Amino acid sequence: MESDHIYIRGLRVMGLIGVLPAERLAPQPLQIDVDLEVDLVLPGVTDDLNDTANYGAIADAIAVLVRASSDILLERLIARIADCVLSFNHVLVAHVTLTKLHPPIDEDIDSTAISISRSRQATDSATRHRAIVALGTNMGDRVGHLRFALDHIPHVVASSQVFETDPVGGPQNQDAYLNMVIEIDTMLDPYALLRLLNNIEAQSNRERIVRWGPRTLDLDILFYDNISIDDETLTIPHPRLRERRFVLQPLSEIAPDLCPAEWNTTVPAGVVHARGLLRNLISTTEH
Asked: 0.90 exceeded by the pTM?
């Protein structure tokens, strides 16, 4: 049976990739072309975006992933792009071509490229991981910043309410925060997930000037499966999780098993108000 197809062609993104020392210093231009095998019979009848693969959201997710990457090999990056594409609903097979537009070699050459094909069936049998991520914002369009994060974090499977909280620590006279916690189903390793989240923060104009200062968007990995990491780049579980009610309150809604015993009576209350602002957002941004 012939498949239906959606094409994304000529997506150009700057990404850090390569083996040579010079390639590790600055991003270089990459082009991504994707051929999606999908079933377009239903959306052809319903005219409903939810019944097809949203190529705009897929292109955005690929761009975020590539900009956050620091992979050495094209082979590694293209595999992660294919995994990202297959995490979207209705994509059955992803054919991906990744082109390095100006490879830094001595010969006269326009580009180098690799192509792979991956199916949802094969991907579903691969190892997937459960990660818990905390989101916070207290600058500008707070709801908009949360919505942006949810639009760019692939495969969100559960979400807490949004809570409005007084700031804890940092400079005086900060505005109140909006906080929430999500669970994601991911094939990214912890460090790749951290790079993705840092890139999403950067796209929201996050500035790291004052510790615990005001921020447009703060994305923290709280848990990743049952593993523990403690190095200069990443600490999992999050080291200050047990003392932060503004994290524990939303965490208790989606993963109460991960909250410390009797946290509700031992952790200072502070000011935490449920807002319920984005309760129905996840259903409209599933990846």
From this structure: no
